[in-house]
Amino acid sequence: MPIKPTGYEQNFIAKMEFDRRKAIEEEKRKKMEVDERNKLQKLHYMKCPKCGMELIEIDYKNIKVDKCSDCSGIWLDAGELEAIAKLDKSLLDNVFSVFKR
User: Fold this and answer.
1) pLDDT grade, residue 92 (50/70/90)?
2) Is the CB of residue 61 less than 8 Å from the CB of residue 91?
3) Measuring CA to CA, how many Å separate 7 from each of 1, 4, 11, 12, 17?
4) 59, 39: one domain
5) Quick check: is 20 in a domain?
6) Are residues 64 and 94 in the same domain?
7) Which domain holds residue 2?
């Protein structure tokens, strides 16, 4: 004669099954997030945040600055503003004179 599980055992088994299914769904969600992020990166990579046109990377004094091919907006990546701030003041004026229309 089989032994009938107690209420505690049934709750434990149900919780274990719920946790297992939840982990599977979480893994699916993470994969979907990665796929969505990759899709967005392909769509927006090196595009001007203001007008959406192509950005052109300019290398000036070992600092890579992105300039919009249409609106001439200047965009800096992480750490580039600090690198520009460390430049000599007269050199900084020369940097910005390159980007004047």
Assistant:
1) low
2) yes
3) 19, 9, 6, 9, 15
4) no
5) yes
6) yes
7) 1-45
Burial of 32 (0-12, 13-18, 19+ CB in 10 A): exposed
Q: Would the pLDDT of 13 be above 80? A: yes
Cα 42 to Cα 23, 26, 58, 67: the distances in Å are 29, 24, 21, 19
At 14, list the tokens: 């149900």
71: its two tokens: 């609106």
What's residue 1's pLDDT?
Answer: 57
Q: How many CA atoms lie less than 13 Å away from 60 in the CB half-sphere?
A: 21
Our count of domains for the chain comes to 2
Specify if 71 maps to a domain. Answer: yes
The sign one gets for the Cα dihedral 82, 87, 90, 91 is negative
Whether 50 maps to a domain, the answer reads: no
Rounded to whole angstroms, the Cα distance separating 70 from 58 reads 15
**pTM, to two decimals:** 0.48
pLDDT in tens, 47-64: 888 888 888 888 877 888
